[in-house]
Amino acid sequence: MTIRSVIIGTGSALPARRVSNAELAEQVDTTDEWIVERTGIRFRHIAAPHETTATLATDAARAALAKAGVEAGSIDLIVLATATPDQTFPASATKVQAALEVGDCVAFDVAAVCSGFLYALQVADSMIRAGAHRRALVIGAETFSRILDWEDRTTCVLFGDGAGAVVLDAQEGDQVSGRGILATRLHADGRHNDLLYVDGGPSTTGTVGKLRMKGREVFRHAVVNLAAVMEESLAAAGLESAEVDWVVPHQANARILDATARKLGLDPGKVIVTVDQHANTSAASVPLALDAAVADGRIKQGDLIVLEAMGGGFTWGAAVVRF
Ligand code: UT7
């Protein structure tokens, strides 16, 4: 028997304000038809001034703890994936720790943009399997509305704000029949920095900067990389795509979800889609989609799920989980 990290609770949080494509079209030169046809996006949530990455992360974490039925005080590790922290430092994870009154623990942020949740999950899983921690909060939280150029129609219509969280618990399990994270695979290729980046930073411009993206090129890489890393992670778990109950993908574009599913020969009905409701929430998108599908009863205990994401860097990754 080996130690496995089991997801014992999921939670999410969205800003109160929900913005439709039609509302956006009043501010920028776009249309509901263009956005729906090219991306599948219909709505996104936008944070109010009092809503920050850390407050959304805290709300999502609180919901995940409640779902798991465990106390905040039992958490000994918080890993928060974000590209939009409240402050350059300290880590937003420490704000979550303080807000939830977790007490002494290890708390830090992970920066891998849209793949951040997959990176955070592998880091927390590795720390649990090494025996260093027993119970972790893994959170993806973003306020991308704060780094969008609201005059650039090619990017500002694509993103939204939100947070999702899971509670990971150290449990004994066997390789395939037991619950838990069965395999994770991560990648990075820093040669593609200029295809998706923020044009500012503390060490360069001294400003926060705005998001810039060459969407068409990102799209092309996304389909190839995501299909490959899903196959790689399934092979690492000794499983095949036909055994997968649900794919929980990063929600960037409905056309990427379709193309990736087709490439793997997966039934599109097994792909969880929330991009229509949330748009692209970067590191928050996978845990938001996971919580939505758990809450509505599609994903059940014992299901085999594959999480995947790709984003700036490039970075990408996948995780195979017996839920
Ligand atoms: O989360 C990280 C990963 N990110 C992604 O995976 C994003 C990947 N990329 C995409 O999802 C798509 O490439 C986009 C949705 C960003 C763009 O879709 P596309 O089909 O690749 O469109 P395009 O960039 O080739 O642009 C087509 C046309 C252009 O006009 P011309 O040059 O053909 O006259 C754009 O100017 O659509 C125009 N356009 C718009 N029109 C109305 C671009 N944005 C808009 C807009 N409204 N918001």
How does this structure look, described?
By secondary structure, this protein is of the alpha/beta class. It folds into two domains: about 1-175, Peroxisomal Thiolase, Chain A, domain 1 (3-Layer(aba) Sandwich); about 180-320, Peroxisomal Thiolase, Chain A, domain 1 (3-Layer(aba) Sandwich), CATH 3.40.47. It contains ten helices and 13 strands. The protein has helices spanning about 20-25, 30-40, 55-70, 90-100, 115-130, 155, 215-235, 255-265, 275-280, 285-295; strands at about 1-15, 15-20, 45, 75-80, 105-110, 135-145, 160-175, 180-190, 195-200, 210-215, 245-250, 305-310, 315-320. The strands form four sheets. It has a five-stranded mixed beta sheet, sandwiched between helices. Helix 4 links the parallel strand 4 and strand 5 (about 105-110). It is globular and about 60 Å long. The structure holds oxa(dethia)-CoA. Oxa(dethia)-CoA binds near residues 216, 253 and 280.
Number of domains: 2
Distance between the termini: 18 Å
Provide the β-strand percentage band. 25-35%
- Order of adjacent strands in the largest pleated sheet: 1-7-6-4-5
CATH domain topology of the largest domain: Peroxisomal Thiolase, Chain A, domain 1
What's the name of the CATH homologous superfamily of the largest domain?
Thiolase/Chalcone synthase
